[in-house]
Design a protein that fits this description.
alpha+beta; Double Stranded RNA Binding Domain; 3 helices
């Protein structure tokens, strides 16, 4: 997995790099088919934002989050990304035959 972290109007400190990497590793352990991850952290006056694009097989997943604190924005981003990756994993793992079984069982 290729991980790139960039900052707009912000210098990425080693502490911030480690924090983002730790959050993403915890989220990405649920899903094995991640090829690359691109994170953009930005500061605009009172708004701190974090964006991530995760390239998985067959799809690109984009998530963004804004907050007054950059660490809180990264936390919110990790939660949103976790939900989207779980949803993608459920959709990609379901086969048409299995979906038909579920419909017939209901």
């Amino acid at each position: 997995m290729n991980l790139s972290i960039t900052g707009h109007h912000l210098e990425i400190t080693p502490a911030m790099h480690d924090y983002v990497t730790g959050k993403l590793e915890r989220v990405l352990r649920h899903f094995d088919h991640v090829t690359s991850v691109s994170v953009v952290l930005a500061v605009e006056k009172l708004r701190q934002s974090a964006e991530v694009t995760v390239h998985v097989r067959g799809k690109d997943i984009f998530v963004e989050s804004d907050d007054a604190d950059l660490y809180a924005a990264v936390d919110s981003l990790a939660d949103k990304l976790d939900r989207q990756l779980r949803k993608h994993k459920e959709k990609s793992g379901e086969r048409p035959r299995e979906a038909l079984k579920h419909q017939l069982a209901e």
